[in-house]
Amino acid sequence: MYRATNDHSCTKGLKEKNAHRNEKLKVKKLIIIGGFGNGTVVQSTVEDINEKNPTWNLLGFLNDRETDPINGYPVLGKIDAETVSRFLKDPDVYFFYSLISVKLNYKFLGKLHDLQIPQHRFATLIHPTAVISKYAKIGHGTCIQPFVSVGPNTHIGNHVQIFAQALVGHGARLDDYSYVANNACIGADVHLKEGAYLGTNATTLEFVSLGKWSVTGIGAVVLKDVPDYAKMVGNPARQIGSVAE
Ligand SMILES: CC(C)(COP(=O)(O)OP(=O)(O)OC[C@H]1O[C@@H](n2cnc3c(N)ncnc32)[C@H](O)[C@@H]1OP(=O)(O)O)[C@@H](O)C(=O)NCCC(=O)NCCS
Fold first, then answer.
1. Going by CA atoms, what residue is nearest to atom 44 of ligand 1?
2. Does any ligand 1 atom lie closer than 6 A to the CB of residue 133?
3. What predicted TM-score, i.e. pTM, was given to this entire model?
4. Sign of the C-alpha dihedral, residues 78, 83, 88, 90?
5. Domains and CATH numbers, the chain
């Protein structure tokens, strides 16, 4: 399923195949806001979804820095309300907002809101290898990457990103804009408040809460509630500062 390749003829062939399928099927159009980095991870997931079940016609990216195609997809314009409003006129166009900055995520929120995209026009993307309980609730504009496991009675909000191989225990609540890096392990009934960030390989005890826009570093082991905006590291996790400083 994975194509770890720079072989452009292969990518071209895939796109032609997809374009042909899209003609026959009623697929939704998608624009990824972002680019190299997280945007291309999302692009990969979209392609894997399409291979399994043609769902999205990926039109391209919105990006403030790049003008050349990104992995063969055009850059359609800058990330601004005027560009977005042009595409919003087509009711079949959906968006995915992929911009992330570990310690400054809350500062990106204004940029997202300025675009004035109605919540229902954000795509929710779930990789075909993810295992999601049918009792989980998932919001708009959320992306769940390969081999993630999401337990029953979890509530995952809008614009949440869960990266490869992470585990979300039963009853967990992941509020809007929270972020779970790859291989992180969220215990049962844990609460990630708005924008909380859990780093690669970090683990949490059940029932703890991670404060708003807090950042918990790679490999941390969280045993107690994390304050809002706190920067946490280590085992057991301790606060080394604040992302709001
Ligand atoms: C927690 C984190 C945000 C701190 O970043 P920072 O503010 O730039 O911190 P610094 O690198 O200046 O380190 C500050 C101190 O904390 C220590 N530290 C930083 N991250 C640590 C971690 N994850 N575990 C243990 N100690 C850590 C540093 O060694 C340093 O200690 P010192 O003062 O004794 O030298 C960052 O290290 C981190 O883990 N980010 C998550 C990355 C991630 O998950 N990426 C996934 C997507 S690829």
1. 199
2. no
3. 0.90
4. negative
5. 12-121 (3.40.50.20), 125-239 (2.160.10.10)
